[in-house]
Design brief:
Blueprint (H helix, E strand, L loop, with lengths): L4 H12 L9 H7 L3 H15 L9 H4 L23 H4 L18 H14 L2 H5 L2 H14 L20 H9 L35 H29 L6 H12 L4 H23 L12 H31 L1 H31 L35 H11 L37
Length: 441
């Protein structure tokens, strides 16, 4: 025999042996080192940890179990010659366990028998040759052992009736199908009890009754009186203070003495002297002199007098305590009155807070202002809609309703103001340089 080219090459490689390489540096070590067996071993350990733990570290009781069941499962001998229909044909048979959606009456036993005969005929000539009882038995057996998917979730049930499933919950969170949980503070903000469209007062009708018209006039009058009272109050607070009689006399004297400087200087000097003394008297300052100092005896008497006054005050307090023991009933009565007043204040505070909740919320820097009441005065009433004078504005009324219900914030129309004053000048084409030399004059 002779060596082929491939065989010669393999024999040469075997003779050469394993190729030697340098593993001096980390780079060459990583390049020429074979760690596939180590990686396979580590991958196997990871797979065992994922599937229940490392097998080598488990005890025998965890890996094996003793079968203590004494019953012997006997298998029934199947006759090889027994004929059975094909599975593909059995899937096409009607399911007798499934209820029909029709509103017909239930089938009787005779009709069911007729249906089984039709199924048997559909199987073909082979089924007709065999015993009909065995075929019917196989049909019933197929219907009993037919596998159906196990349904654990009712698609038509309400969400609250569904059983809690943590896997389903995790799936919804990961796929972002679960709705966001509303914060607790969302339930605190109750909607305002204002209707979207408020019914107007009966007195605002174009042909109201006398009592209804007088009632709406009274309401409008109260609103106007309150507005006038607020304006007067503001004017009183910002008004200049009135002059007293002395100030008016001083102003009159100054006006009358205009041109007489000697009288003005005398009056001013008197005022200065009076003002200085009065200021010292108001501040409580006293000139301290050496001859007016207190002696040691005077200071000792003053101290004894102060101690005596303190002693009298303490005796008075002790006497007051003894008197309070005899007036326990009146003290209890005062305590009850105070508790009653405190309770009334708390109830008033609660009522005020309830009234505050029923008022429109403040959503901007401007507070909500009630619109003017649309009404007709007595001399403006008309007997027909043709002569009726229109009042109010539907657009403004809708916008005010949105503000009252808190849908939009309260706002005011923005007024555009010029940053600089408007400059006026004459155009060059309209400018008249010399009025006297104009032609035609």
């Amino acid at each position: 025999g002779h060596l082929t080219r491939g065989g010669a090459l393999h024999s040469c490689l075997d003779g050469m042996g394993k190729k030697r390489v340098s593993k001096k540096s980390k780079r060459s070590w990583r390049k020429f080192s074979n760690v596939e067996d180590i990686e396979e071993h580590l991958e196997q350990l990871r797979a065992e940890e994922r599937t229940g733990g490392i097998v080598a570290k488990k005890a025998d009781e965890q890996l094996f179990f003793v079968d203590k069941d004494t019953t012997v499962h006997e298998r029934k001998a199947k006759s090889k010659r027994e004929w059975r229909p094909l599975k593909c044909e059995m899937h096409l048979w009607p399911d007798l366990k499934m209820k029909s959606f029709s509103t017909q009456k239930r089938k009787s036993v005779k009709e069911k028998k007729k249906q089984t005969v039709k199924v048997m005929k559909a199987l073909g000539a082979a089924a007709v040759e065999k015993d009909s009882s065995s075929v019917a038995h196989s049909v019933q057996k197929h219907l009993k052992t037919r596998r159906r998917p196990v349904v654990t979730k009712d698609l038509w049930a309400h969400e609250e009736q569904q059983a809690y499933d943590p896997i389903d919950d995790y799936y919804k969170e990961s796929t972002k199908q679960k709705p966001v949980k509303a914060p607790k503070t969302l339930k605190l903000n109750k909607p305002l009890p204002f209707p979207a469209v408020e019914v107007a007062h009966p007195g605002a009708s174009y042909n109201p009754s006398f009592n209804d018209h007088q009632a709406i006039l009274n309401v409008a009058t109260e609103v106007e009186v309150e507005k006038r009272w607020k304006e007067d109050k503001l004017n009183r607070k910002v008004a200049m203070p009135s002059m007293t009689a002395l100030e008016r006399e001083a102003v009159w004297m100054e006006e009358m003495c205009t041109g007489r400087e000697d009288l003005l200087t005398d009056s001013k000097s008197d005022d200065d002297s009076d003002g200085g003394s009065s200021s010292e008297a108001l501040l409580g300052r006293k000139t301290v002199r050496a001859d007016g100092r207190k002696t040691r005896k005077q200071k000792q008497k003053q101290l004894e007098r102060r101690l005596q006054e303190e002693r009298k005050l303490l005796e008075k307090l002790e006497k007051q305590k003894l008197q309070d023991l005899y007036r326990l009933r009146s003290i209890n009565r005062e305590i009850r009155n105070q508790e009653r007043e405190l309770g009334d204040k708390q109830e008033a505070k609660k009522a005020k807070s309830v009234d505050q909740e029923l008022k429109p919320k403040r959503l901007s820097q401007y507070a909500y202002e009630e619109p003017d009441i649309d009404l007709q005065l007595s001399d403006e009433l008309a007997g027909s809609l043709r002569q009726l004078k229109p009042e109010g504005n539907l657009m403004r009324e809708r916008f005010k309703s949105l503000q009252k219900r808190g849908v939009v914030e309260t706002r005011k129309p923005a007024v555009s103001r010029r940053k600089y004053r408007l400059k006026e000048y004459t155009k060059r084409t309209h400018r008249i340089e010399d009025f006297d030399n104009m032609p035609g004059l």
